[in-house]
Specification:
Blueprint lengths: L17 H15 L3 H6 L2 E5 L2 E9 L18 E11 L4 E6 L5 E7 L1 H10 L8
Antiparallel strand pairs: 1-2, 2-3, 3-4, 4-5
Length: about 130
């Protein structure tokens, strides 16, 4: 069975200024460089509302005409999926997994670097390809 972290209450993520976001991006990029496989998987990173989202592209063979997909395809052949979310709190971060019902589940907590390392070592975040 996988270990899950239960967060007591509803802690709020930190509010980040543009300067803080740029500093955080540099820290994230430095941490991700240690994991070449993760670096290859991440197609896009986004920081909003004190949360860091990592995205991955998956190529699909269109079975339907493109206009029949509910989510538009990127370049006509890619779906974009969220790999993981890291929520930044005042003292630490939590690593979150998005379930099939679009609800978030906290998997682990620790420093930013520890959360990024956990993405590479936890079965929760295995590549879908």
């Amino acid at each position: 069975m996988r270990n899950m972290i239960w967060v007591k209450g509803n802690p709020k993520p930190v509010k980040l200024s543009e300067y803080d976001k740029e500093k955080l991006k540099a820290q994230i990029n430095a941490a991700i460089e240690k994991y070449p496989n993760l670096q290859k998987r991440i197609s896009r990173m986004e920081i909003k509302a004190g949360r860091i989202y990592f995205y991955e592209l998956h190529e699909v063979k269109p079975l339907l005409p493109q206009e029949q997909y509910t989510i538009p395809l990127i370049d006509g052949k890619y779906f974009e999926f969220i790999i993981a979310r890291i929520t930044v709190y005042a003292r630490n971060c939590s690593l979150d997994f998005q379930r099939h019902n679009n609800k978030w589940m906290a998997i682990d907590s620790g420093t930013l670097e520890e959360c990024i390392a956990k993405i590479t070592s936890s079965g929760w975040f295995d590549s879908m390809s």
